[in-house]
Amino acid sequence: MSMENWEPVKKLSSRSKLGTVWMVRRSKNGQTETGYFKFSNLKNERYVGPLPGNELLAYHLASRLHLPAARVEVAKIEGQLGIVSLARPVPQIYKWTQLNRRIYHNISSFILRPERLLKMFVFDIWICNIDRHGGNLLVYPVGEKYDFYLIDHGLSLLGAVQWQGFSWDHPHWDRVVGYNRNYVRGLTKYIRNYDQLEPYVKEIQRVSYEELEAAADSVPLIILSHENKRVVKQLLLSRQKKLHIIVQKWIKDYKRTRKE
């Protein structure tokens, strides 16, 4: 947990219901690190619940699955307690939406280990991420291809539940096209059938309850209460057990909506 040393650089525009994001910097081991600071207040908690807790837990879960996600740590800056999402120290970073159109049509040729995008897709379904889009999938060149990493998970887990107003165990969350129509450009064309997604469904279903519990319990109580941890464990365990059913239903629903 890093509670100091970060210095605000500027406040960035943000959707008002999600609160303000600060760009911050610090010097560590002779290197300058840049991050993006988010914190909760009574106003945005009405809409997204424990936003820093959602972000930190999603990061822990993504790391367990070896998904490339921005490192997230707890920080206290100018009296505000929240989380900092660290930017990768690479010369050039783009949003997925800034890539050339030909890349969207040929993901396997231009993206390093593109199967991780499939795992990301299943992971987002598991954690009820209602806000994955080309703006929170960051890419950077590596030779003639691009690598990527994930950011912004505030509207997942309890954030999604609070934002859309359905309890975690409501049937609403079993139908992905009913709660989320945001797709990373080109990804749905890359997904041809359930067989492509099944290995990642099974990988998530192999995560033990002890590991889920440890991930939730590792989040400090000051940003994720005992009650919130109890609820989020139930959410994750329930969705994990029926993840294959939810993903298969998305395949059928998406194909049907494409025909309509």
From TrEMBL:
Name listed for the protein in its UniProt record: PI3K/PI4K catalytic domain-containing protein
Organism per entry: Aneurinibacillus aneurinilyticus ATCC 12856
Lineage: Bacteria, Bacillati, Bacillota, Bacilli, Bacillales
